[in-house]
Amino acid sequence: MNTMTHKTAVSSPTSPFRHRLKMWLAELRDVKWPWVVFPGLAVSFINIIIIGTVISIYASIISVELQSPEATADAVGNGAVLIGTYASPVVQFLTTIWIAYLVCKRQGTAVAWYGLLIGAVSGVAAALQVALFAGVPLEFFLDATLLTFLPAPMLAGWLGARRSQTALAGQERLFRASQEIAHAHTPQAIVKAIGTYLATANVNQIGLWEILLQGAGGRPTAVSLLAAWTAKPNESWQPGLQLTTDITGSLARLSPENSLQVKSIDLPTAEKQSWEALGARSALLIPLVTPTGSWVGLLTITSSASGGLSRSSERDFGTIAAQIALVLDNLRLVAQAQETAVLRERQRLAREIHDTLAQGFTSIVMHLEAAEQALPTDREITERHLDQARSTARDSLAQARRVVDDLRPELLESTPFDQAIGRVVEQWAAYSGVAADFRVTGEIRPLHPQVEVTLLRSSQEALANIRKHAQATTACVTLSYLGDTIILDVEDNGNGMPRQAATPDGLTSSGFGLVAMRERVTQLGGELFVESEPGEGTTLSISLPLEDGAQN
Q1: Which bin fits 483, alpha (ψ -120 to 50), beta or left (φ > 0)?
Q2: Which whole-number Å values give the CA distances from 11 to 8, 15, 18, in the listed order?
Q3: Phi, psi (degrees; rounded to nearest 5) at 6
Q4: CATH for the stretch 412-552
Q5: In the chain, where are the structural domains located?
Q6: How far apart are CA 73 and CA 191, in angstroms?
Q7: Are 225 and 207 in contact (CB under 8 A)?
Q8: What are the counts of helices (DSSP H) followed by strands (DSSP E) for the chain?
Q9: Distance, CA of 158 to CA of 156 (rounded, Å)
Q10: Cβ atoms of 256 and 288 closer than 8 Å
Q11: Sheet strands (E) in 6-48
Q12: Cβ distance 433 to 470 under 8 Å?
């Protein structure tokens, strides 16, 4: 039996050097040669202008000092040789760095190739320049001599490319930090983004502070730490840490327009000890001010180095300060909105509980007390009160579930609005024993659900107050459709209210029911009036607009 074997080709892994060489050659193919040739020639052109200007100035000075034309010509010639020999290479070197930096920063890719090639073109142009102005035969430069003109400008081009790489990397870090800050939802996320992308080796703490107290010109006199980033997690500042001008006097020297560099060596003893206790021998204090001029916080970058931060680092931190101020202000507004929403929800629950559960419990208590009194003598009356208490308890349980779910009252879901008010009046009259009448005037129109709920709850509360306090024998509820307004009037012939309690301000002292009623009406853009005289009854009137339904 013959066995056939097949050789399997196994590809050897590419060495890192070969991989890097391929990438480098691929970058060379992407080079745009006009951005190499013209900048390289521009270096020589700028060099000629600068050196020519220097020689012209030198010649003007010499011509004034030397009266002899022959002596002037000799001196100018010798000076031109010295300037061309020593100054021209220096100018070319520096100009090549500058031009290569600008081109590489603009292109953003293959920066090493651009730098080297621009340097090579400027070196060749320098050789041609020497051949042209010094009278050296061009053939002299077409051999190995040409190579002597290339190393210096190519080194200059490479330095320019490296400088552009540093600038591009800084821009990338700044861009990434800005992106992270824009999507930050907490102060801690803000300082984390700053520390991750912008912190240099000598930065040990980055702090984001809120202003507790402000003095003259809005300058902070006390700040509290919101969040901190540190290079050493075990040495992190804790939120709640406070700085005050009593000890940290540098706060008083802050201005909204400029950041402040602080070096502990230049500070008074007390403040120096305060900063060094925080592990800082120098610090950069940056005010966080919104475009509207509102001072919303303070950013601090501390360093263990006594010399402080570099100008480029200070510039980077200052660049994102305005964005940090906006994000911090937005976070503050969001927190306030959440607090307002929570407060409104609490108020809604308080109103709903008062308008439904509290009244239900009151009715249950009244029926149970009546049943207790009738128990020894009249079983039928006792059972009737117990049945009503049981029915009210079930209704209250259903209402409690609906309050939690923020749904419309069940009565409004099963009954048209005007009929629902009529049923409320009818049931109240049956429970209270007070004669009550319900009227509707005007053309009935559909209402916004919030308007319906407000008027229903208000009628229930007004009738409950009549039963508790008025000692009335008759009551009347009137629903009036007047153009773009609906009016609810609840009248009784009871004891009335004191003048002070009948005023809008007096409502706040007349129990939560009237306060909740006024809040409901005000939120919908309506008005509530109470007219009453002691001994002459009370009229409560609510007017609501029919359009829009609610003000958000």
Answers
A1: left
A2: 10, 12, 14
A3: -120, 135
A4: 3.30.565.10
A5: 16-171, 187-335, 412-552
A6: 67
A7: yes
A8: 16, 11
A9: 5
A10: no
A11: none
A12: no
Residue type, 97: I
Residue 146 CB coordination number (10 Å): 14
Give whichever of 210-219, 290-299, 479-488 has the largest mean pLDDT. 479-488
Query: pTM of whole model > 0.70?
Result: no
Contact 329, 297 (CB under 8 A): no
In the three-class reduction of DSSP (H, G, I as helix; E, B as strand; rest coil), residue 425 is classed as: helix
* Partner residues linked to 29 by β-bridges: none
Exposure b/e, 314-348, CB count within 10 A at least 16 = b:
bebbeebbeebbbbbbebeeeeeeeeeeeeeeeeb
Residue 1: the pLDDT is 39
Q: Are 62 and 79 in contact (CB under 8 A)?
A: yes
Q: How many whole angstroms separate alpha carbon 521 and alpha carbon 526?
A: 5
Tell me the pLDDT tens digit for each residue of 149-162.
788 888 988 998 88
* Cβ count within 10 A of residue 230: 19
Cα separation of 34 and 40, whole Å? Answer: 10
Fold match between domain 187-335 and domain 412-552: no
CA 468 – CA 462 distance, rounded (Å): 10
Nearest to 544 by CA among 493, 473, 483, 461: 483
The CATH-assigned architecture of domain 187-335 is 2-Layer Sandwich (3.30)
The tokens for 219 are 């300058």
Q: How many CA atoms lie within 13 A of 407 on its CB side?
A: 13
